[in-house]
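Take a look at the protein record below and tell me what you see:
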Amino acid sequence: MERSWYWRVALIALVTLGSVYLLVPSWFYFRLPPDQRNGEAYEKSVPRWAPEAKKHLNLGLDLQGGIHLAMGVDVDRAVKAKVARRGDEIADYLKSKNVPFTESRPVEAGRRVEVKTASPDQVRSTVLDAYDREMYSPGDAPAGSVLFAFKDQVLREFQAKAVEQAEKVIRNRIDKWGVTEPDIKRKASSQIQIQLPGFKDPGKAKELLGRTAQLEFKICDDENPLLDQLRTAVPQCPGDRNGITLPLPEGGCWTVEPVELPSGGSRASTMLAANGRPELEKLVQDRVSPLLDPQKNVIGIGEHAVSTAQGALSARYYRTYLLRAKTELTGDYIADAFVSADNSDPLQRNRPVVAFRMTAEGGRHMDRLTSENMRRRMATVLDDKVETAPYIQGRISTNGQITLGSGQNQQRQYEEANDIALVLKAGALPAPVTISEERTVGATLGPELVKKGTLAALIGLAAVLVFMIVYYRASGLIADVALVLNGLLVLASMAFIGSTLTLPGIAGFVLTLGMAVDANVLINERIREELREGRTVRQAVQQGYQRVFWTIVDAHVTTLVAGVVLMQYGSGPVRGFAVTLIIGLVWSMFTSIVVTRAIMEFFTRRETARLSV
C-alpha cells in the first residue's frame, strides 16, 4: 500500500471519531423528555469530557413547537421623539451661539420644530449652518417664529433605521434570554417576525420583547404649585398621621407630601392618587391636562406600597409626580445593568434593585445633571412609570441604581429586576412595538412532525441501502458504509455550528444522501466499463476513480452554487434546506471520493484480487 493510503485512512478515522464526539451532547439532549431538554437537567446530563452542552442539534419551530410572533414598530412615535430631541438640541445650540430666542418646541403633531424669536433670519441661518444636511426651513412659519423640518429622505432613512434597530434590540434580548436558534427577520413595512422554538410561555415572551425599556431621568418640579389648585376640585384622600389609608375613593383623590426645596426650606406638595393606574390616568386627563403646559411640565405616575403596623406590605396605590418636561438623560448611555441587593430599608433587607453603570459620556452628563440640581428630586422613569424619585444629595457619575416599586414578594421583585436588567443591557427599543400576530405551535404537533419526518428519512435511507447491495453487491456495501458515514458527518456538522433542523432541512438531508449515492453509482459504473475493456481489478479501480473525479466535482459544485444562492436570498424554511444541502454536498464529495476509494484500494491491493461490482 502507498504511504498516501495510510494518511487517508488516518484522516477518515479522525473525522469519524470527531463526528461521534460532536454528537455526544445531541445524544443526551434527545434522550430527555421535551420539557427537560432546555433546562438544568440536560446540562447536568452531558459528560464533562464532551463538547459544551449548547453544541447540540436544534429542532425548528415546526418540529418541536414554540411561539410565533409578528410585531409592528411604531415608527411615527420614533419620528416624534427625534423631532423633540432635535428641538432641545436647537435650543442648546442657539444658547451656545448667543442667538436670541424665547422658545423651541415641536409643533404640528410632532413633525416640525418651531423656534419663537424676534430675529428669525439670524435663527434660520444659524440653525441651517449646523443642520443643513438633515433639515430645511419651510416658508409658512407664523410671524415671530421659524419652522424647521427634517427632509423627506432623512425621515425615510430614520424610519428604516428604527425598524432595523428594533430588530437588533429584539435579537439581543433573545440571545441574552437563552432561546436556542430563534428566527428573527424583518417583513414588509415596519413588521418584525419572531419564531422562538421550544419556548412555551407567550406571556413572558410578549412582556420581555414588547417592553420598550425607555429609561429617562427627569427632574421633579417640586417648587411648582400647579396641582395645589385641585384641592377644591378633587376629594381628599383618607388617611392619618401615618399616611394614606386604603382603599382610596373611586375616581381618585388628592393628598400632600412634604418635600424639601433646593433653597433649604420645605413645602406640602399636592399629589393625586388612585387605586389603579387607568383610574389615575383618567383623573390626570380630566383634571390636570387642562392646567398643564406640556412644554414645561409632564405628569409622571409611580407605584407605592402601604405597610401595616407589623411592617408587612399589604396593598398598593398609584400616585403622581410633577416633572419637568425635558428629559435630562436617557438609557442610551447605559453600558451595563445587573441585579444587586439594597439594605438601606430596615424593613426590606436584601431588596433586589437594578444597578447600572454608564458609559464615559453618560457619566459626564450625569455628573453635570446632578451637580446642577443638588437637593432636588430626580425621577427615574422606565417605560412611562416612575420607579423612584430620590433627592440628589451629591454628585453622581457612572454608577447608579433603580429601586423598584414595593408591594411584591422578594422573589417577584428579583424576577422583575432581572427582566429590567436584561432589557436595559440589551438596549431600548427606538419606539414602542405592538403584537399584531401571535401563534403557539402546540406540543402535539411538533412530535408528530418529527415522527413522520424521521420515518420518511429512515425509509428513504433503507431503500437506498438495499438497492445498492442488490444491484452492486460488494461495491454497493462499500457505498452503503460511505453513505452512513455521510449522514453521521452531516448531523455532526449541524450540531457543531448550532444549526436548526426543520422539516425542509430533513428534506435537504435526504437529498444529500441521494447525491452521495449518485456519485457512487457513477464510480461503480465506470469501474464496470474499465473491467469490460480487460483491465485488472486494481487498474479498473484506479482508472475508474481518476476518470470520474471531475464529473462528480462538477455535479456537486453546480448544486452547491444553487444551495449558496438559496441560503443567501432565502429565509426561514428555505434557508434551513439550503444549509443542510450545502453541508451534505461537501461531505458527499469526501465520502464518495476519499472514503470509498480507500476501502476499495484495500480490498484490491493485490493483482489477483476480485471485485463484485
